[in-house]
Specification:
The chain has about 180 residues and is α+β, with helices and mostly antiparallel strands. It contains two helices and ten strands. It has a domain of about 120 residues: 2-Layer Sandwich (Tetrahydropterin Synthase, Chain A). Helices cover about 20% and strands about 40% of the residues. Helix 1 packs across helix 2.
Length: about 180
């Protein structure tokens, strides 16, 4: 039996990064202090075919990933799918209650994410989900490409690195 083989594209550029502040919450009701990271992002795309008809340019992924990273750059990231976090916006400010502590931020400097916690794992999952949505809208996540040929993209793995040697990834398969 012939082993199944794939090609992998890797997209890892200096511009695929975001500097964000966050607090990780823990099951015992405690949390980290507000702090930040200079996150970097790497994308690995698994392809089943590299023929001319099914070639997908690196630029497709770069053009979609860049704005997603920029949206989180120089922002405070808050997890809103957590019972210990509540947010309310008033007069241009966002008031957040996190583990019974009150924080007030300029509303335009906060990104509220519908995740349970702000961890590298969940950031990778959320960013991968947003990238799948963008690829779908651009015609690169369905069964066929716009040209009518079969889509060679099998899946992708999105890595979030919060410091050198430390990070997480999330894999999503198209097929």
């Amino acid at each position: 039996m012939k082993p199944k083989s794939f090609w992998k594209l890797t997209i890892e550029k200096d511009r695929f990064k975001f500097s964000s502040a966050h607090m990780t919450l823990f099951a015992d009701g405690t949390k980290e202090a507000l702090h930040g990271h200079n996150y970097t992002v790497r994308l690995d795309v698994v392809l089943s075919d590299s023929s001319l008809a099914q070639t997908i340019s690196f630029s497709v992924f770069k053009e979609l990933l860049g704005p997603l990273c920029e949206a989180w750059d120089e922002r405070i990231l808050l997890a809103t799918a957590n019972s210990r976090t509540s947010c309310q916006t008033k007069d241009g400010s966002l008031e957040a209650i996190v583990c019974d502590k009150r924080y007030v931020f300029p509303a335009d400097e906060v990104v509220c994410l519908n995740v349970e916690n702000i961890t590298s794992e969940l950031l990778a999952s959320e960013l991968a989900s947003r990238l799948v949505e963008a690829l779908t809208k651009a015609g690169y996540w369905g069964d066929k490409l716009a040209s009518g040929v079969a889509n060679p993209i099998q899946g992708m793995e999105l890595h979030i690195i919060e410091t050198a040697g430390q990070g997480a990834s999330f894999t999503v398969m198209r097929v």
